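Notes from hallway chat w/ T.B., transcribed later so I don't forget. T.B. wanted the structure written out for a chain they're using in a teaching module, and asked if we could keep both sequence and structure tokens in one place. Agreed to drop them here.
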Amino acid sequence: MKQTQKKYAIAVDAQKCIDCKACMIACKVENGLPQGFWRNWIKENDPGGGMHTQFQPGQCMQCDSPSCVSACPVGATFKGTNGLVVIDPKKCIGCGNCVTACPYDARFRNPETAIADKCDFCYHRIVAGEEPACVETCPTRSRVFGDLNDPTSEISQVLKSKKHIRIVNPLINTRPNIFYTDQTSLLNWPKEPTLPGNIHMSPQFWKSSG
């Protein structure tokens, strides 16, 4: 019997995020990132003028149609059979094409290795049967990780039972695999043009450049 390929994704319930930044610290320690660089982040949004602060976690979206892959001239960035967009450090030439091609500002050039870097869902942990560090360490379980192709997985059950959205860039829909189940707070952000069935990302959501 042929085994179905895995397709990993994360569902985020932003209402559960308390901005403790445990996910950011766990990621930094787990992946040995240099000072001042992060693979994930948390943005603060306050649509209520101080009445109701919202925290929105972000990271590489692990897109189905990743623009970073097509931008790489040497095939160092590629999409594996498990759906994850990863970087082969032996092939990467540090040109930075993928960094500028990412519509989510989720990539950077690692100053210590001189090659591209980003979240890969802690792939080394996945192959060891563990969850990504950010998922495992979250004290409020605001993130759910799993295989979308497994209908019995927790993430499949969450997406089946809750309303959810995928945030897409106004210029390109890369079909991201980070899902947000906190639809109310997201839709209360400053309105922007939308794509059918989705909303466009608010500039407040994404980390600042530089």
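Follow-up for T.B.: The chain has a mean pLDDT of 85. Might be a good example for the class.
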